[in-house]
Structure formats: structure tokens, C-alpha cells
């Protein structure tokens, strides 16, 4: 399982989640151009430390991602060039 950052983070990118992540798996485009932060599904250790740190409540376990934001899962996997299989 991995965590997914969804719509509430769009154009916010607070980065409090980055500061608490013990494995540094939360990223944005190197040039800062991404509209949202992304969690690398291969690096994420499913600790959940990022969830309470997010001030806009944008981070969900992939299996609990609200239906209206399901597209963010594929976007997250695509960002890292990882294959996506809907959960």
C-alpha cells in the first residue's frame, strides 16, 4: 500500500508532510512546476506520518482515496513512471 496526495494539495504544496517523512518519498517536479506533491509508491513504507502533518487533509491510503479523487492515484504513479493497477 502507498499513500496518495489528492486535490486539496493542488497549488498548496505546504510540504509539512515532506518534513515528517522518514524515507523522503514525497517529491515534486525538480523545477517546482508540479501542481501537487507526489508520494513514490516504491519508496513509501506506509507509516502514515504524513497524514496528520498535512494541513489541508489531502493524504489518504490508496485504498481509502475518496471516489471523486481516484484519478490522483494514477497521476501519482505516472509521475514516478511506475505501472498503475487500480485498487
Mind explaining what this structure looks like?
The chain is of the alpha+beta class and 87 residues long. The protein has one domain (3-79): Alpha-Beta Plaits, CATH 3.30.70.20. The chain is built from three helices and four strands. The strands form two sheets. It has a two-stranded antiparallel sheet. The radius of gyration is 11 Å and the shape is globular. The termini are close together. The model has no long low-confidence stretch (mean pLDDT 96).
Largest sheet: 2 strands, antiparallel
Low-pLDDT windows of residues: none
Number of helices: 3
CATH topology: Alpha-Beta Plaits
SSE run = EHEEHEH
Average pLDDT taken over every residue: 96
Percentage of residues in helical conformation: 10-25%
| Named CATH architecture | 2-Layer Sandwich
Task: Tell me briefly what this model is.
The protein has 87 residues and is of the alpha+beta class.
Per-chain topology:
Blueprint: E1 3-5, H1 16-20, E2 26-27, E3 38-39, H2 50-53, E4 59-61, H3 71-79
Antiparallel strand pairs: 1-4, 2-3
List keywords for this structure.
87 residues; two-stranded antiparallel ribbon; 4 strands
Amino acid at each position: 500500500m502507498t499513500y496518495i496526495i489528492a486535490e486539496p494539495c493542488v497549488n498548496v504544496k505546504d510540504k509539512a508532510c515532506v518534513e515528517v517523512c522518514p524515507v523522503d518519498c514525497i517529491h515534486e517536479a525538480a523545477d517546482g512546476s508540479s501542481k501537487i506533491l507526489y508520494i513514490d509508491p516504491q519508496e513509501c513504507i506506509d507509516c502514515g506520518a504524513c497524514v496528520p502533518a498535512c494541513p489541508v487533509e489531502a493524504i489518504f491510503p490508496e485504498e481509502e482515496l475518496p471516489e471523486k479523487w481516484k484519478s490522483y492515484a494514477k497521476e501519482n504513479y505516472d509521475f514516478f513512471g511506475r505501472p498503475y493497477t487500480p485498487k
